[in-house]
Amino acid sequence: MYASRELSASRTAEMPDTSHTVGKERPLTAVVLTGFARLLPSEPLLRNGHVLAISSLVNAGVGALFWLFATHWYDDEIVGLSYSALSASLLLANIGQLNLNDFLIRFVPCSGRHTRKLILTCYTVSASWSALATVAFLALVPMLASGLGYLRNPAVGVWFVAATAGYAVFVLQDGALTAVRRPGWVVAENMVFACVKILLLAGGAALALESGILASWAGALVVSLLVANYLLLRRAVPQHEKEAPQAARPPRLVGYAAADYFGSLFRMAAYTIMPLLVLSTLGAEQSAFFSLAWIIGYVLFLVARNMGSSLVVEAVSRPERLVEHGRRVLRHSGLLLTAGVAVIVAGAPQILRLFGAEYSEEGTTLLRLLALSALPNLVFSVAVDVLRARRRMRLVVGLQIALCALVLGLAAVLLPVLGITGAGVAWLFAECLLAVPLLIWRSRWLIPARRTTT
Predict the structure, then answer these.
(1) Residues 224, 85: one domain?
(2) Average pLDDT estimate for 113-129
(3) 250: pLDDT confidence band, cut at 50, 70 and 90?
(4) What is the DSSP secondary structure assignment for residue 97, as one 8-state letter?
(5) Domain containing 113: what range?
(6) What is the mean pLDDT of the chain?
(7) 256 and 240 in one domain?
(8) What is the pTM of this model?
(9) How far, in Å, CA of 3 to CA of 305, rounded?
(10) Least CB-packed of 74, 112, 147, 398 within 10 Å?
(11) Residue 435: its pLDDT value, please?
């Protein structure tokens, strides 16, 4: 997912106020990216949110290409099983990373000269807990997901544990790069990951490896971790620490982190348990049809997520503008998402047909429902991020528990009746049930935050 070249141009995209200081003899790529940066909003809140959203779109586009190749080079059953295994890995990584990604976004901006220590501590804790969670999952696979029994093979099991721990760090590095205001590097990092995945996938197909999908994902993960953390720890963090006030202290907010983590477990469960629920209820082939629609539809969810990350970063230094920023994100992202939803709803059959006629026939209605769900999800996501910035953690936790219970509860009832379309109905209905009261009583959460020093 991430590229490492043309760093000066990437920084120009993130920090427009310094673009005029670049020397006259700039590389052509830098000139092109500088011109592109001028097309983005000048305000850091929207600019960084746009860059993060572009990262998600680039990643999704190349990721869709990855799955396009996978569906043509591998059997549907292998695609379904591989996607379910990767979904399990993502769930375990998010359990193990303790939601320290959002913690870094919230507190790295004010951690000053303790930034490196904070990031490395989070890396160590996250990787360790992810590995422990994965070992426990493998022990319970026969009861939780019997279709993934092949992961209990000793060699495959070791790979699965290591890859999941690595993915936990992978998630954190995005949060760290966002927190030090280097969203352009997140775009580059995503490009490296996605492109290496495709190259390794082709190699696995040429060698007729049944594990080619999983192996390509793990190999690309290693490359991305090396590239991104070299840039983060050797370039971005030293500059961030140098510019920070000498009096800055590391945050001591264990209670905040614990509550944020607890709530995030339910939100991530809603995202990542669904593929396993589809697999266990409808089988591997239907899981493959679901997975492609979900990958495409989830991109719209990420737009709200990325704009929210930018909102939290800006709220740390300017809490008095939280209400203004929250409203701007709602309006601006609402317009972007409406256009994106319209495109996907209209073009869903053609988009899925790229992966095969069966994917279009089985997944079109699901994809349309998921796309429509992104609009109420914007309200839900902004509300959670505003409340997180204000440290109203009880509401943060409560909203995410409600989302998880509604989505998975409805899906469990609807999947046997409606097939994979039931998952889309569950998402749309659950998001609307939460978004409508949040809009009606928005004055109870979209209110000014008190200024804090951490």
Answers:
(1) yes
(2) 88
(3) very low
(4) T
(5) 1-15+41-250
(6) 78
(7) no
(8) 0.65
(9) 22
(10) 398
(11) 93
